[in-house]
Specification:
heterodimer, A: alpha+beta, Cytochrome-c3 Hydrogenase, chain B, 2 domains, four-stranded mixed β-sheet, 13% strand, globular, B: alpha+beta, Beta Polymerase, domain 2, five-stranded mixed β-sheet, two-stranded antiparallel sheet, 24% helix
């Protein structure tokens, strides 16, 4: 037997034994497990690094520690209940998950053209708010991993402003289940537009503060410039999309290329950089937040009164909720309508809530430009009231494959910068 | 009678034979049963009094040309893509078994032995240029005899801003599909995921190991014959059964 490579396994156990082995051989390499419980790996990501001194010669990624079987579970719930599951996948971009799923279901139902205008504007509005929140977390966690706790506290503080608005609109800071097949769960509450206008005034200053802190910061530049470089052919081969692809010089954005939810009616730019490194990804994300603010402003101008759920009694879940003495529930108007006004309405309500609606057999693929890249939903129906199969193409899952290409040959410190610049969320990776 | 009329007559005759009740009926009966009983209830008796109803699914559909529907802008480039793919494959065009256009999306059903050639043509041909593969999605149809496992690929062309679907199947008894990692390296993890959850073996994959489930796991969890599991939950004296045992509607 020939031993091609002598290595020391430092994946756990007694450190004395590891040191003893390291001293007994002439091997210079060390295989280290970073994670799955490492604070800088964004949740439960396991990096298996082969180190030659401070240099990382091989980087492999282990995932699966947060697999929750969301896709399987959805096959045992109605199509509407599916939103409650998908919102928990990539928990930093819940509204993108919901919209991708609902667009796929609506395409299966062939009702894409019948979604009310107001519902589409609200979807765009909450998605762009969500993009800002997600990008701030990307910056904040990155700062923390580099040891810059001010970046972390600032980032989370600004994100909280967005979450307050999302809480006002949907009732929850995360896991909203707000976007539903056919529209959205309920209309914007009173005062929401005013709050968003306040945000539009305040947020540019906050973004500016963050940029002042980082744009020209010598420490930040040293840690991000020319680090974890990935060029355009590399991005294409590895299926990398979103801010990472745009930071490699390609202005590819599904909102422009394949508009959905009426994105063709908004004016905004697609920020691009040709740096291909961690710093370029930071710049692209920062510029995207400013563009999102532009879109949000246009959303507010486009908001016209109208329904927020499809006018189809067999699909449209009642979307007129009101706060009652026992919490949020169907509005008294709706209750009066089904209990004493219309027998058909009562039947529809009952059938929708117990059985759900039937979706004609077939398959559909809908993709949205999430904060992280192309988020695709492949939905298959057998004609029943439950999804036959739903698969999500999560951008974080695909992007983590690029870790080896970005990290090998760099230092251990650069591994942390590389992973942070991908901005993976393990809830979405493992689903 | 002129020859032209005869030709017309013969054409009508062939069409008419296809529509004969006997033939249509036997085709219909050959389709798989998708639901029995009036309401599809499985947990309680069928109260309609007619539980013997058997609803059959439709046979695999294929679309015919033209694929482009002038009324539907989503289908604008489908004819062009189909022509270009046929031209790019040349003699191997038989690898595309059928083409389905449904809900503004085009699906190329490809024989599994020719999958790699087809996707290579889709990626490299200048008229096609599907540079980006967004992974593979497995689907398990236990009733689709000899084609139980489906592997569905979504390809995207950035050059031509176009999107297509490529679908291939393999039987449960021989769950092998060639790997396309050599063409689209991004499919590395996606194929591992489809192997992990559906048991589709991607021949030629550099390291086909489980990706989400533990290495020593038995079975492939997202197949239809794999139970969801779960325990009943007691709440205020009532028992809520696990999700896969609750009342279901078809």
């Amino acid at each position: 037997m020939t031993v091609t490579e002598d290595y020391i396994d430092a994946s756990g156990g007694d450190w004395d034994e590891v040191i003893e082995r390291a001293q007994a051989t002439s091997a210079e390499r060390l295989v280290v497990n970073m994670g799955p419980q490492h604070p800088s790996t964004h949740g439960v990501l396991r990096l298996i690094l082969t180190l030659d001194g401070e240099t990382c010669t091989e980087a492999r990624v282990g995932i699966g520690y947060l697999h929750t079987g969301i896709e399987k579970n959805m096959e045992y719930r109605t199509w509407t209940q599916g939103t409650t599951f998908v919102t928990r996948m990539d928990y930093l971009t819940p509204l993108f998950n919901e919209t991708a799923y609902c667009l796929a279901v609506e395409r299966l139902l062939d009702v894409t053209d019948r979604i009310p205008e107001r519902a589409e504007v609200i979807r765009v509005l909450v998605m762009e708010l969500n993009r800002i929140a997600s990008h701030f977390v990307a910056m904040a966690t990155f700062g923390m991993e580099l040891g810059a706790t001010t970046v972390m506290t600032n980032g989370f503080r600004e994100r909280e402003m967005v979450l307050d608005i999302l809480e006002l609109i949907t009732g929850l800071r995360m896991n909203h289940a707000y976007v539903r097949p056919g529209g959205v769960a309920q209309d914007l509450p009173p005062g929401a537009v005013g709050k968003i206008r306040e945000l539009l005034k305040e947020m540019p200053k906050r973004i500016q503060t963050m940029r002042k802190l980082l744009d020209e910061n010598p420490v930040y530049l040293a840690r991000t410039r020319d680090v974890a470089y990935l060029n355009l052919p590399g991005c294409m081969a590895l299926g990398v999309t979103g801010p990472l692809l745009r930071a490699s010089g390609l202005a590819w954005d599904l909102r422009k290329a394949k508009p959905y939810c009426g994105y063709e009616n908004y004016e905004f730019d697609v920020p691009v950089s040709d740096g291909g490194d961690v710093y370029a990804r930071y710049r692209v994300r920062m510029a995207e937040m400013t563009e999102s603010l532009k879109i949000i402003e246009q959303c507010l101008d486009k908001l016209q009164p109208g329904p927020v759920m499809i006018e189809d009694a067999k699909i449209g879940w009642p979307a007129k909720l009101a706060l009652g003495p026992d919490g949020m529930g169907n509005s008294p108007d709706h209750i009066a309508h089904i209990m004493s006004g219309s027998m058909e309405a009562l039947i529809h309500h009952f059938k929708l809530v117990t059985e759900g609606f039937r979706v004609p057999a077939g398959q559909a693929y809908a993709a949205v430009e999430s904060a992280k890249g192309e988020l695709g939903c492949h939905a298959v129906s057998d004609g029943g009231t439950r999804p036959y199969r739903v698969h999500f193409r999560d951008p974080s899952f695909t992007h983590l494959q690029a870790v080896a290409a970005m990290c090998e040959g760099g230092t251990v410190a650069d591994v942390i910068a590389a992973v942070a610049s991908i901005d993976p969320v393990m809830g979405g990776v493992d689903r | 009678m002129s020859t032209e009329n005869e030709a017309n007559h013969n054409g009508d005759g062939a069409e008419a034979a296809e529509n004969l009740p006997d033939r249509r009926g036997s085709e219909r009966l050959a389709a798989p049963v998708v639901r029995t009983g009036m309401f599809g209830a499985t947990t309680a008796g069928d109260t309609s009094g007619y539980g013997g109803l058997r609803v059959r699914g439709s046979a695999p559909a294929a679309s015919s040309r033209p694929f482009t529907d002038p009324e539907d802008p989503r289908t604008a480039d489908f004819d062009r893509v189909a022509d270009d793919l046929e031209a790019a494959l040349g003699e191997g065009a038989g690898a595309v078994e059928r083409i389905v256009v449904d809900r503004g999306e085009i699906t190329f059903h490809v024989r599994r032995d020719a999958l790699v050639e087809v996707v290579r043509a889709l990626r490299d041909d200048p008229a096609l240029r599907y540079e980006l593969c967004t992974g593979v999605s497995g689907v398990h149809f236990p009733d689709d005899t000899d084609r139980e496992l489906h592997a569905v690929y979504h390809l995207r062309s950035i050059t031509h801003n176009s999107q297509i679907r490529v679908e291939t199947t393999c039987p449960d008894a021989d769950p092998h599909v060639p790997s396309i990692v050599s063409v689209y390296p991004t499919n590395d993890w996606h194929e591992r995921e489809a192997w992990d959850f559906f048991g589709i073996v991607f021949d030629g994959h550099p390291a086909l190991t489980r990706i989400q489930m533990p290495d020593d796991w038995h079975g492939h969890p997202q197949r239809k014959d794999y139970p969801l599991g779960g325990v009943p939950v007691e709440y205020r004296g009532a028992t809520v059964p696990p999700p896969d045992e609750r009342r279901a509607y078809k």
